[in-house]
Every structure is written in structure tokens, then in C-alpha cells.
Amino acid sequence: MVTHLPVLIVVAPLLAAPLVAIMRGGRWPWAVATLVTWFSFLCSILLLANVSTYGVVSYALGGWEPPWGIEYRVDLANALLLVLITGLASVVLPYARLSIRQEVGDEKAPLFYSAQLLQILGLCGITATGDAFNVFVFLEISSLATYALIAMGRDRRALTSSFSYLIMGTIGATFYLIGIGFLYVMTGTLNMMDLAERLPEIQDSATVRTAFAFIVTGISLKLALFPLHLWLPNAYTYSPSAVTAFMGATATKVAVYVLIRFIFTIFGVPFSFGQEPLAEVLIPLAIIGLLSASTVSIGQPNIKRMLAYSSVAQIGYIVLGIAMGTAMGLTAALLHMFNHGLMKGALFMTLGAVAYRMGGTNIEQMRGLARTMPLTFWAFVLGGLSLIGVPLTVGFVSKWHLILAALELGWWPIVVVILAGSMLAVVYVGRVVEAGWFGEPENPERKEAPMSLLIPVWILIAANLYFGIDTRLTVDIAEAAAAQLMAGGSGS
Amino acid sequence: MMTANTAMILALIVPLIGAVAIGLLGRWPNIREAATMITAVTLFGLVIRVLLGLTGGEFIYVEWLTLFSGVSIAFNTEPLSILFALIASGLWIVTSIYAVGYMRGAGEKHHTRFFVCFAIALSAAMGVAFSANLLTLFIFYEVLTLSTYPLVTHKGDDKAKAGGRTYLGILMTTSIVFFLPAIIWTYAAAGTLDFTLGGILEGNLAAGSATLLLFLFLFGVAKAAVMPFHRWLPAAMVAPTPVSALLHAVAVVKAGVFTLTKVVIYIFGTDYLAGVPYESLAVYLAGFTVVAASAVALRQNNIKRLLAYSTISQLSYIIMATMALAQLAQIGAVMHIAAHAFGKITLFFVAGAIYVAAKKTEVSQLNGIGLRMPWTMAAFAVAALSMIGVPPTAGFVSKWFILAGALEAENLFVLVVLVLSTALNAAYFLPIIYKAFFLPETEAPAKDHGEAPLPMVLALCTTAVLTLLFFFFNGPLLDLQMTLVGG
Q1: Is the CB of B181 less than 8 angstroms away from the CB of A403?
Q2: pTM of whole model > 0.95?
């Protein structure tokens, strides 16, 4: 079984998705979907253990040897991300049961869980595959599922949000496809390692450079890099709570991963940073995105929307790390990719619990939360502290490495920007905490969220603290993964 | 018999266990208060055990886990840290007695939450004291900020909220924007953050960069309240008085100056710092804060605000004396951490006692109050004399050493600041004593009153006596601290 791990993670939900769709009611589809994601999670952990002991795992799909057949290729970077995706899914799905019953209803539940499985498998597929065209296929699978999931939101604005994401997402995917087309024309291959091998000879050609531009722009749309982030706030705000939690934690991270894969493995550092002005383009955008999105989030009356803008800002940190083009910067980016998934997953799930009891996530509904829903409130406080980057949380670990990477390059202004972002986070998180702590609730009765919502929330909060204290696992893997990536296509 | 290592770790954990116990016993106030007392006394006993270990030459070092390569969460102790721990834990006992009287007498609400947060803050203070490296210290420094926020905003009204915002805003901002990068920079340069006698930066960082680093630390550790990042301290005065007394005259602010002293002695190293260009700017800035804060205090009518500005001024004494880099002055700085603690906690106790007994908060209302509350105002007089630096009080001892250090280093600036601020201190404290004892009451109080409740009077008399005793019995402490400068 071990040799089949990379494909099992993807195939299990793929088989389960249609099965779930033909079921009736809310319970069985939910149970099957949950079990399948747990299985995928288990496979991901085994795979990560396997990769960190024995090195890169290559799997030839259907027995067709790469570069002719489709290859699944898992090194430390994507093994880590697979653990994040399936792990988050394993926590969000048990949580989804009550939340989705209330927000979507039992009659649509089979379709919901089916779409949810498709989204998960799409994201896992993008991450696991070693084939550039296969990335596109899975990108479309996950995106289509996501559009459907967003549209299931209670608010009618979910429909327009879904539609505008569809337009933007399709443009992004098309750009990506055009880029891949150019590369195929030039090299005659779609396998990533093969591409990495052939590109250096022809890297001066205008076609390759155009392909690079198309691919980077297309992926930037999917990862919501400023100013291509406009689809994100609405999509996050109006989706069902469970969808936001999973999507907010993983979807943009997967796009970030694809960007990293192309920049470092396929095109290589000398091309991306030497020949192309990648850093010069990405850094200003990351900085503007980071500061402006943080600032905008301060004034948001809807806390879900506030966190959505915060996500755009956090993407800025990750892109900054990538744009440094150094091993340390990449380590920080990978770390924050993982860590931000943990904190945003936890925070969005906390808001889901608030929505479940209070009927919404506006600042008024947060008032007096410390008294009415203390466990939910404290989960938000801890998640918020992690977002700010207070020591003993994962946010601190990310920040530490990012600043260290900036200092290594002597980029003092970047250090200032990173810290300014933290300060803005203090303001927007503080605002919610203040409302929860001092505010007068409309109805002072205690009505804590049910356990099936609270337990998943607190599992993620515990992960935020655990990986903030015991950094061996994440930091070591991120460092090793960064070293693999820096070595480019030849390294592994 | 437990080892000093165990005692040190227990000193961090016992207040937390106490916090849980206090939280669970919320329904029975008397038992809950007993839990606070037991916790405080146990903590003090543990710190004494660590002290015995230190003087007995025991190896004291505990490592929990490695956060980043070369940096762990680790604890140890040395003369400076044991001093801070002793003061904070010892005065916690007195404050607990006082707080029982105050919280009931002043009719405050949410007692359980109050005592829980207090215990957590003490645990954080112990963590700061026993940190073996800068990162561990930073973690507990932040915990201290966060755990005191509910205490500052205890009343929950708009004024408390505004005060809390300033408090958290300044302390968080400075710690993230200045302190954290300073730590990361130190780590990037030296590859370690361990407190090492003689410093870790020598040979690792160009002297020019060290100037910038020094100021990042100076502003980053805003708990030391060096201007212009001092405003959180007056803002924190909205808290109930026991908080102002123990936390904002002792534990929190002393954590600030303690951190800076640690940084000077164990991160930069005194010798290395002497070669850092413009280091004297730090002395000037601290000196300016001493004088300016005293001048502001002169114009305050609210007793607690006056005391807050006086604290700002006294804290900068310590920083100025540390940064002056003269051995005797550094000894004076360390002694002043203790001396100021005894005096200032007494003054805050008095302010709280006046508030509870007479509902008065302003200096202008104090005419003749000494006759109604003789014990309280006598304690005030002793503590005020200590602030000015008159023998036989604690303040004289530390000022003596700072003065001797200034003369030794022929530092005219420090000398002038000392003289000037002594005059200013006298100018705002002596009139209060005069008013209290020698002016007649302007109008009879609405309600006839005498002393505050007994626990409060007991507490403030204890600390006043400590202020006097410190003048006579400071020998052991002095001997211990001498090892810091290799004397």
C-alpha cells in the first residue's frame, strides 16, 4: 500500500464523491465523507513520514513511466501541504454536520458533501501531481466544486460572489493553461521534472518568458495576490461557515504551492530571479496588499469579511518570503503557508460557531461573547493572538523566520512592513476581543456552541499552540523542503 | 528536600495552580482569599529556596524545549533575577492582604477574575525573572502584558476601556515593533540569546549597528517607561489600587528595568557597550525622563497620577544609572529596584487607603487627613522621604551608590540630574505631608471616618517598615549584587 499512497489520497475521495451524491438525508453522506477524509489524512501522514525518511516519492499513474505518463511526485514541500489539506478537512468535516444542517439544510446535504469531497480531492491532486497539465485538470475540478459550495451560502449574495469568483477563477486558469501551452510547444513535455531539465537551454526565448508571465499571473489570481484579490472577500464572507473555514485555510495555500513549484523547481531561481524581474514585481504587490488589506479589515462590520481581508494580507507575508529568493525566505513562506492554514481555519470555524448560535458574524453579534459563549470567545482570542504573532503560537514562529530572512538580506524596510502588519492585526483582532469582553449581549443567557462544533475548533487551537511551542516538526520540514526546492529540478 | 531547580520551576507553576484554585473557589470568598494567601506564601518560600541554592553554589539551570536552533525555553538564576523574584513574590503576600481589604472596602466587582489574573501575572513575573535567555524572557514579558490587561480594565466602564487601549496599545506596539526585531537581530548576529556575563555581541556586531540595537531595546522594553513611550503607565492608573501598587509600581515596571539591566549586563556586556558610539544618548534620554516626569508630577492633582509620574521618573533613575556604565552606579541601579519597590508600593497602598476610607482621590482634598488616618499618613511620610532620598530610608542607600558612581565616572550630567530631581521630588511630596498633618480640614467630610480597614493599614505599615529596615540591613543584598560587576 505504501507505494500507492500518493494516488490513494486523491482516488479515495474521487470514488466516494459520486457515491455520496446519490445518498439521501444528511447523516450518511456526512459520515462517508468524514471517513474518507480521515483515510486521506492517514495516508498523508504516512506519506510525509515516508518522504522524510526515504526521500522523494515518484508514482507512475497506471504504470506509464514518466515523462510519457502522468507522474505523481511528492517531496517534503507538497507532503507537508497534503497533511495540511487533509488534516484541515478531517477537522472541518465533523464540524460541518451541524453547521451545514442549519445553513444548507439536509435535502441539499448529499450534494454539498459530494462537492466538498471534490474540492478536497482537487486540492490534493494539484499538490501531489508532478505533471503541469494535470495541475490544470485538478485546478478546474476543485474550482468548479468551490463555485458550487460558495453558492450554497444562506445569503443571496452568495450567488453573485460565486459568479464573480467563477469569472476571475476561469481567467486565472485560462492564463495558466496558455502558459502551459507555450511551454509544451517549446519543450514537448508536460512533466515538471522534464520541463525543468529542458528549459535552461531555451530560457532566452520570448515564448518561454511569455509563458512564465502567463503562469505567474494566472496563479496569482488564484492565490489572491493584490490587486487580483477582489474575488476573495465576497467569496469568503457569503460561503457557508464550514466552506469558508476549509477554503480559507487551504485553497490559497495550494495556489501558493503551485507558484513555488513553478518558480523554484521548474523555472529555477537563476531564471525567475536573475533573468525575470520577479522580485521587483512581487515585493511591491505583496507590501501594498499586506498593508492595504490589513487597513481595510479594521473597518469591517462583518468579522468574517474582516478575516477575509486579513487573509489577503497574510498572503502578502507568504509572497514576501517567496520573493526573497533565498532558502530562508522560502522556509518562512512554507512555514507560514502551514501556520496560516492552522490559524485561519481555527478562526473561521470559531466564527461559524458564533453564526450557529447568534445567526450572524457582525460585530454586534460578537458583543458580550465572553459571557454568552466563553469557550468560543477564548478560542477566538487564542486564534487572534496567533494571527498577531504572539510567542508560543504558530504565528510567532512564522514571523520569527520571516524577519530573520529579511535581516539576512539586510532588508530593513521589509522588517518594518512585517511589523506594521502585525500592529494592524493587533488593532483588528483587538476590536473584536474588546466587543466580546466588554460589550453587552442582547440576550445575556449563556448559550455555548454544541460540542461537535467546539471540539474541532479547539483541536485546531491546540494545534496552533502545539506547533508554536514544539517547532521541530514544522521548522525542520520547512527547512529541508526549502533546501530541496532551492536546488531546483536537479536537486531531487 | 527539593532541589533549587525544582523550586524554580515550581515558582512558575504554583501561581498558575493558585489561579485555578482561586477560580474554582469563587463561590466562597473567604476560602478563595485563603487560597491566594497560601499561594503567595508558598511562592515566596520557593523563591527563598532558589536563593539558598544560588548562594550555596548549586547549579541552577532547567531547559524545557528548543524553539529554534540555539534558542530554548530555559530558566536559570543569578543575583539580579533572584532580587526581582524576591521582591515581586514577597510583596505579593503583603498586597494580597491589602487587596482583600481594598476590594471589599471599595466595593469592586468580579473579585474572582481579579485574583485569578493577579496570580497569572505573578507567574509571568517569575518567568521574566528566571529566564535564561532573551526569547524566554520575551515570552513571559508578553504574557505579563496580556494578563494585566483585564486587571487594568477591571471596572469595565468607558474610562477603563480607554485606559486599557492605551496600555495594551503602547506595550504591544513597542514590544512587537522594537523589542522583537531587536531580539531577532541579536540572534541573527550572535547565533544565541543566552544571558552570558560579559555579553554575547562582542565581535559579532559592528559598534555602529549596536547603537541602533541599543535604542531598539530601550524603546522596545516600554515597561521601563522611558519617554516618549511612558504614557501607558498613567493610563494604567484606572485599575484598582492593588494592581497599581504591586504591578505598576513593582512587578510590571520592574520587569521593564530588570530586562534592560539584563540586556546591558548580559547581552551587550558593560565593556562592549562602553565602545558603542552615542551610548551616552541613552543616559541623556533617561536623565531627561527623570527630570521631565518629575516636573509633570509636580502639576498633578490626582494622587495616583502623581505617583505614576513619580514612578516614571524613578524608573529612569535605574536606567540612567545602568547606562552610565560605572560599577558603583550599576550597583546603585540594582539597589534602587528594591528601594523604590518598597517605597512606591507603600505610597500606592496609602492612596488606596485614602480612597476606601475617605473616598478622596485628589491631592487638594488632603488637608488635615493625617489626624484622621495617622498610621496611613505616617507611612506615606516615610515612603515619600525614601523617594526623595532622605536617610534613614531605602531611597538614600541606592541614591548614594548612584551618586558615588557618577563621581567615580566623573559624569557631571548624572550628578546634575540627581540633584535636580531630588529637589523636584521634595517639591511635590513635602507639601502633601505638610497639608496632611499641619493644615486644618477645609470642610468636614460627608461621613466621619478614621483609618481604612485593618488589612490595608497592616499592609501599608509593613511596607513602610521595610523601607526603613532596608536602610539598615542591606548588607547581604549588596554582597550578592557585587558579583554582577565582579567586585
Answers
A1: yes
A2: no
